[in-house]
Design a protein that fits this description.
Rossmann fold, alpha/beta, about 260 residues
Length: about 260
Amino acid sequence: MSASDLFSVAGKRAVVTGGGSGIGTMIARGFVEAGVSVIIASRKEASLKEVTDELSQLGDCSYLVADLSTEDGCRDFGAAVAERWDSLDILVNNAGANWGAPLAEQDHASWARVLNVNVEGVFHTTKFLLPLLQAAGTAEEPARIINIGSVDGIQVPGFETYAYSSSKAAVHQLTRHLAKHLAPAITVNAIAPGPFQSRMMKATIAAAGEENMAKMMPLKRIGRPEDMAGPAIFLSSKAGAFLTGAVIPVDGGIATTK
């Protein structure tokens, strides 16, 4: 098998939640450029339309407006995808929320908002898209689920983002749990990003200063779009077909060299 075949994802179908900005857009763009048909989803139609108009110049991209913070919203989303496609090769669970505040100011509402999207949203989205993934996947060529965790679910973050870091650690464990039960026809892995120029990280990078943040990282820079698209393409290709239950830090070495 040639290297181009080993890493090819051309002709596959992918859903990328949270695809209207940041890491979701980075992954969606990488997929579209590699010949994947992509549906992006989020709550904000304006950003979805803007990204879809841009990526449609490169390949096949469309969007669905979805609220993945509730089970009903995930159910409606699954039904909407099923109206368009009869099978799904790749699901990227990227939609997420963050919240940071001093410990004494943390309340139930902030925790519920973050965990509803970051953990329950991943679970219910997967549940309602499972029939389409099962229709595509086989033991020889599995369908792929890629959950977007975080380096903050591996190490203790410096900021007081208690709900966020806890939710991402939960996503990593959920990834391993699903991997065990959905094998062999579906693989489930997680990417744990470090600093990238995403909507969620914008304020953090601005507060710390990009140059200062880069100095603290072993690779001396924050992540670029291709740094996120590459692992997603790898996990979705034949090259990544024997990998499941893994949590892959894509963080410039932050979590693995301390």
